[in-house]
Structure formats: C-alpha cells, structure tokens
Amino acid sequence: MIACTVRFLTRTAHSPQTQTQTSEGFLERTESGYAVSYRILGDEACFVVSRGELFMERKGEFPLKAQFLSGRDSLIFTAYQGATGEIPVHTDGLRISERGGRLAISLDYRIGGTYAEHIRLKIFITFSEVL
Q1: Domain at 2-126, CATH homologous superfamily
Q2: pLDDT tens per residue across span 37-74
C-alpha cells in the first residue's frame, strides 16, 4: 500500500455547484484494478474499482455499501440512526485512467426513488510512489 490523497468532486442535476471533499488514504493495485482506503467526515471508508465496476463501503456514523456496475442497475444500502434502506441506482458510465502518479475515476449514475437525481462523481487519487 502507498499513501495517497483522495479528492472527490460531486455535481448533481439539482445543484450546479461542485462539492469537493479531500482525504488522505492508502492505495494498492489489485489483480483487476485498485483498492483505496481513507477516512471521510470521521468515518472509515474504502472502495475497489476495476473495469466497469466500483464497490464502495463506509463504516461509522453514515454507513453505506454501494455497487456501481457500468450500464446496469444495482442498489445502495444505507443506514442512519438505526434506520436502514435501499436506494435503486443505475450506472450510466464508469471510466478509470492512470497517468503519472494520478488515478482518475469518473462515475455517472442516477439514483431512483423519492429523491431521484443524476449524479456525476469524479475521484482523483494522487500518489508519489510507483504502483
């Protein structure tokens, strides 16, 4: 594992402003992609990404598990203050690129249900060691 900086840029159809969050974490190459662990807003989080698939998990005050499958439907499982729920999601696109100490992930998805919305998430991971 190597130390890295993880930066999330989120834009939704209902909010024209891009929201940014940054965290320090660890990156490692897996057989089929990359695994990243980090802390965000006090919670432990990680994601594993490979061609056409991103699995995300967060543990703590705002726990969730999400699987994004390019071109397919899936679910986000979440819990807050003892209540649990499932949110339907459709992944429109997932792209990954690595270049010169930087890994970029672009995820476009739509959540369904009561709060239906299109979300564009970009994740930039910077590191100084060679993977």
Answers
A1: Calycin beta-barrel core domain (2.40.128.20)
A2: 999 989 999 999 998 999 999 999 889 999 999 999 99
pLDDT digits (tens, 9 = 90+) for 77-129: 998 888 899 999 999 999 999 988 899 999 999 998 767 899 999 999 999 87
List the domain boundaries for the chain: 2-126
Q: CA 127, CA 131: separation in Å to the nearest integer? A: 9
> pTM value?
0.88
Amino acid at 74: S
